[in-house]
Amino acid sequence: MTAESTPDPQAFDVVDLIRTKRDGGRLADDEIAWLIDAYTDGRIAEEQMSALAMAVLLRGMERAEISRWTRAMIESGERMDFSSLTTADGTRRRTADKHSTGGVGDKITLPLAPLVAAFGVPVPQLSGRGLGHTGGTLDKLEAIPGWRASLSSEEMLRQLDEVGAVICAAGAGLAPADKKLYALRDVTGTVEAVPLIASSIMSKKIAEGTDALVLDVKVGAGAFMKTRADADELARTMVALGTDAGVATTALLTSMESPLGLTAGNGVEVEESVEVLAGGGPSDVVELTVALAREMLTAAGLPEADPAEALRDGRAMDVWRRMIAAQGGDPDAALPQAAHQHTVAAPATGTLTRMDAMSVGLAAWRLGAGRARKEDAVQAGAGVRMHAKPGDQVTEGQPLFTLLTDEEQRIGRAEEALTGAVDVEESAQAAPQELILGRITADDL
Ligand code: URA
To answer: Is 0.85 surpassed by the pTM of this model?
Structure first.
């Protein structure tokens, strides 16, 4: 820690800082450094931080405040360092990473990490587990027999050097202030504050030490950000934070009105990701994987690379197989199958004009694919298979969803979650559904 970031423990009175923010004022750099340090150490009570988080939610923060807040959260823990990754001639290899703000059926990290690594760009992807209706990347990969999420820093570096891609759990030492603050926000109605979301995500990504970062900011019914304006603000704030910290950061705004692909769950999403790596898979998953790969490769200095070709010719699949095997997984093993399945039929004949992402996410969660509490286990085989996408023609009675679970008693509540989740219109034209809604770079700030 620098002298500036180790403030005098008695320097400020937290109640004064809460009042400043409550009244719409600006917190000074040394106040923010003191506050985050004191909160991480337990010198500021949870109820005081909770009042401050609510004041931030209601009053907002200026760019400089968010930047200092993020730096303080980074300084609360350790930073990773990938500078030892070099090519044969000693040139440093630029790493690239992606973060999604979370959505239903969002399995993109699985094909994306090996795809980008297939071009020689190392991808250190520290991921999380699911909470609530959006799934967690680690939960999905743990459906693969033998696969291990926890790696030591040495194992991670070795795999990055030898295979090129790692998807693993973030260690407890990365931004501990964020872990504490995120848990508090979760129970105090203060998750939705843009400055707090942006600093939470970016503190972890900057501490991770990546050179380039692409953000997939979801917009719509199944996303944190329900409106384009909110998503735009979050994306700009995060791109500014990354840029200020020297990370080449861009953001894509992408639709989360309906689920991505045709599966939501754990093993079923791995299966769909492998289809994409084999050159097939649903077109929206392929489109987003390729678009994000292009952004990552461009930010890492390879604007001419053609990721679509590397999906078609098997290069990305080769890296996937080595990445899974390096973490103890068997890429050829059969994925666990749910003990029970139940079909939900299309309610009418016509064009499917809407499929609500939140309802499908909730159904998958109720079937056992997600958890209500951090310590809950998830079912590897649970989830939802979709048999049509918005824009498709459907016939009354045809299978629309297949519900998968190991516990039959979960089916009723999952079916309830899907009540009213789709619209079928007799005379509607297949409305084009835009997936990529916008792009924000440092030049747009
Ligand atoms: N994800 C995070 O890591 N932090 C937030 O605040 C919201 C989503």
So the answer is: yes
Total of domains in the chain: 3
Query: Ligand 1: distance of its center to the CA of 180 in Å?
Result: 12
**The pair of three-digit structure tokens given for residue 103, joined into one six-digit string:** 């959505």
Instruction: Please tell me whether residues 267 and 364 are part of one structural domain.
Output: no
Q: What are phi and psi of 195, to 5 degrees?
A: -60, -35
Instruction: Please check whether residue 356 lies inside any domain of the structure.
Output: yes
Q: What is the pLDDT along the chain (445 residues), one digit of tens a residue?
A: 444 555 566 789 999 999 999 999 999 999 999 999 999 999 999 999 999 999 999 999 999 999 999 999 999 999 999 989 998 899 999 999 999 998 999 999 999 999 999 999 999 999 887 766 677 899 999 999 999 999 998 999 999 999 999 999 988 889 999 989 988 998 888 988 999 999 999 999 999 999 999 999 999 988 989 999 999 999 999 999 999 999 999 999 999 999 999 999 999 999 999 999 999 999 999 999 999 999 999 999 999 999 999 999 999 999 999 999 999 999 999 999 999 999 999 999 999 999 999 999 999 999 999 987 777 889 999 999 999 999 999 999 999 999 999 999 999 999 999 999 999 999 877 667 899 999 999 999 9
For this structure, is 321 an active site residue? Answer: no
Q: How far apart are CA 35 and CA 17, in angstroms?
A: 9
> Does 283 fall in a domain?
yes
198 and 178 in a single domain? The answer is no
State in Å: Cα 185 to ligand 1 middle: 10
Please tell me whether residues 244 and 289 are part of one structural domain: yes
Test site for ligand 1: of 57, 70, 188, 201, most ligand atoms within 8 A of the Cβ: 201
Q: Whose CA is nearest to atom 6 of ligand 1?
A: 197
Work out whether strand 436-440 and strand 248-255 pair parallel, antiparallel, or are unpaired: antiparallel
Q: Give the dihedral sign, CA 163/167/172/175.
A: positive
CATH number of the domain to which 397 belongs: 3.90.1170.30
Query: Quick check: is 86 in a domain?
Result: no
Q: Are residues 207 and 344 in the same domain?
A: no
Domain holding 71, by residue range, is 1-80+172-184
Told to judge if 205 belongs to the known catalytic residues of this protein, a careful annotator would answer no
Among candidate residues 160, 184, 208, the one where a domain is terminated = 184
Any atom of ligand 1 within 6 Å of the Cβ of 302: no
Other Cβ atoms within 10 Å of 220 Cβ, number: 20
**199, 60: one domain:** no
The full 3-state SS of 128-172, as one line of letters, equals CCCECCECCHHHHHCCCCCCCCCCCHHHHHHHHHHCCEEEEECCC
